[in-house]
Design goal:
Helix content is 78%, strand content 0%. It is mainly α. It has one domain. The two termini are 19 Å apart.
Length: 250
Amino acid sequence: MSGFGVLLKKELREHFKTYRLLIVVAVFLFFGLGTPLMFHYLPSLLETTGEMKVTVPDFTATDVVNEYFGTITQIGLLVVLLVAMGAVARERERGTAMMTLSKPVGYGAFIASKLSALAVTFGLGIVFGAIACYSYTVILFGELDASAFVIANLLIGLFFLLCIAVTLLCSTLFRSQLAAGGLALVMLLGLWVFSLAGSLETYAPMGVIGWGQRLVAGLGNDAWGSLGISLGLVVACTVLAWQALLRREL
């Protein structure tokens, strides 16, 4: 892992200078603020139409948070693909990967710094989005279990870490960013389809999302299998990306 600290600082500085960090935080913050406000003003907006009478149920804090989680995982997946698909492919295409790896830094440190910088960027997005969502939900809809909400966001963070690791692996396999993004999308959609089978949800990687939603709703049915498999896939994708980079022409 020679040179990891230097490479990580370089990656984080690049995320800041290219506004990737700002964009990711803005996306999460937008939905963190927008979801509670949308649920709060929805009845009033429907009443102003005046064309037909629509009965709107009384939304709870749990409804709002679960909608936020559902929306942010879908939108966030697309953001991960756009931000991470060129992490390695772009540098190989431009020749900067060869310049970096010609210095006394390891291939493992190169991949680990990419993964860590992306994890920090999306971690900050999750934190800002969570703070906004929790604050506005409590103000507008009442009490919400803070500990369950924090754990649910950690599980959502694991979901994004898995998406980052898969996309980073694909970015290592191709010089083309579009090819990397396309393969990553297919792989992640495959994992999502796999999780739709009811009997497999507690083992499918995407099951961590449902676990977080159930925690906020005060329900049981944990998904430790999904947690273990997700962590295992993150490690496996990172190692495979490292090995693939070793065997490919820069």
